[in-house]
Amino acid sequence: MKRLFWVLLAGWLGLLILQWLTPTVWGADGYFHIRLAEMIKNQGLLKSLPQAQWSYFSDRFSDKDWLYHLFLIPFTFVKNIFTGAKWAAWLGGCFLYTSLVVVGSFYTPSALWPVIGVMFFLSDHFLSTVTAPRPMILAMALGLWIIHWLIQQKEKKLWGASLVYGWLHITAPLVIVYGLIIKVYRLMFKKKMAWRLIIGSGLAILISFILHPNFPNNWFYFYLNGILVPFFAVKWGVLELGAEFFPLTTQDYLGRYPLIVFGLLAMVLIAMLSRPKTRMSTQLWFLINAVFLIMGLSSQRYIAHGYPVMILSWSTFLTDWYRDKNFPKLVKKLNKWVNVVMLGGMILGLLMLANSLKRMVLMARGERVVGEHYMQMAGWFKENVPGGELIFTANWSDPQYFIGLNPQNNYFVVLDPVYMWHKNPKAYQLYRQIALGQVKDPYAALKNGFKVNYGYAGKTYFNGLVEQVRKDERFTIVKEDQLGVIFKLN
User: Does residue 386 have a cis bond before it (omega within 30 degrees)?
Assistant: First the structure.
């Protein structure tokens, strides 16, 4: 147990260092989530969110992450709620790291626990995900326990976790998918597994949906987020989505998830040379990991979600290989090459770790610049725009920052464009055309169509609109820096 404690402590400290590489919140969503938690603290569970005026949030609200927002409430009592958001993100990352190592300890020897801990830090893409205050992090941790309890057939723990998962994150139906994969596998090999495990989990999720504070609107939001968005993630171009719903390039895959690539290659090589006998649990972890890898071909979000499963799949496979009767024969056969292989593996691991941490440092610098930019812009709105007034933002993800930093004003849509697109497709189409500089007279469209007096546009993707604003004397740029502009409609 001492080794387990030191492995956990090292990981917690590592996550703490990564969290504070930047004084700002990692990512955009955390600004919104911590502000929503503060609103719930002050107003009770929300029934509407007028700050997202052109989306379903304004009149058909459902808090799909309400349990996560309850988790965040204690962190809103600090003087700066965004500092609280960072501590909450660190705690969430620690929960995921702890879950990975502890669940792994049930399947691997203690000598491998530090290796599991190190593998957690080998992907900068994954680390940038888990350092952000998002409900998906807690869901990923809970998912590891659920898979473990499905394999071990722990009914009560499984049902309780499924109930909590249903209140925590929109991906709760994955529990049923996990259960079906395990059930089908065990049927193929004539191993018993009671259907009540899967049925009970499904009922627990159903109950969580029925007892949701925004019932029945939450069913509608599950359709929007759980069905439509994944559909559009595959059928690109129909609806604008966030970067996480697009696949990684081959170069990014190799550079940002090297463990997946080298781990799979090592598995194949070991299987060919040694053919180790693997436990059923190892095969099940690998099957679930394979589902995430296949889904990850269309969306990088699934790669990050499945990365801890990959680590456990690789770790349990190594354990079976080490315990296999052919392992001593292979070591003897390789003879002097064993030390070379082990040294090469250690060097490769250190290189992957160094590459991951280097990328995190660079990303932290970028996060700081972007975070401070939005603070300045939101501060200007707060001081100069009357409360309750609607503000145009060219990027549908900008309101995550602005609602967090300046909740006194209203915006178009927040968190996901599907909430505006589904409610009013024509208004959404006009909104995107304006943002992309495709409307000949953006002033008339904004002033008469959306009734706005102020707007914000970033320079990275919306320079077309920025140039239109510069050339039209009916607009006045009232604040500008290297990342974006605030403009006023005269």
Answer: no
Residue 35 CB contacts under 8 Å (≥ 6 apart), including other chains? 81, 403, 404, 407
208 neighbors 167 (Cβ within 8 angstroms): yes
CB 60 within 8 Å of CB 217: yes
pLDDT digits (tens, 9 = 90+) for 47-69: 999 999 999 999 899 998 999 99
Q: Which two tokens stand for residue 425?
A: 């497709």
Q: Look up residue 208 and give its amino acid.
A: S
The whole-angstrom separation of Cα 322 and Cα 91 is 34
Average the pLDDT over each of 61-75, 345-359, 397-411 and give the range with the smallest value.
345-359
Q: How many CB atoms lie within 10 A of CB 251?
A: 8
* One-letter amino acid for residue 304 of the chain: A
Considering only CA atoms, give the Rg of the chain.
Answer: 24
Strand partners, 393: 456
The pLDDT value recorded for residue 228 is: 83
Q: Residue 166: which residues within 8 A CB-CB, separation 6 or more?
A: 172, 204, 205, 206, 207, 208, 209, 212
Three-class secondary structure of residue 279 per DSSP = coil
DSSP assignment of 22-54, as one string?
SSSPSSSHHHHHHHHHHHHHHH-S-S--TTBTT
Q: What is the pLDDT of residue 335?
A: 66
The tens digit of pLDDT for each residue in 23-32 reads: 999 999 999 9
| Spatial distance between the Cα atoms of 295 and 471, rounded to a whole number of angstroms | 45
Distance in angstroms (rounded) separating the CA atoms of residues 239 and 432? 10
Per DSSP, the residues of 136-160 read HHHHHHHHHHHHHHHHHT-HHHHHH
pTM of the model as a whole = 0.91
Angle at 351 (CA atoms; ends 131, 254), nearest 5 degrees: 70
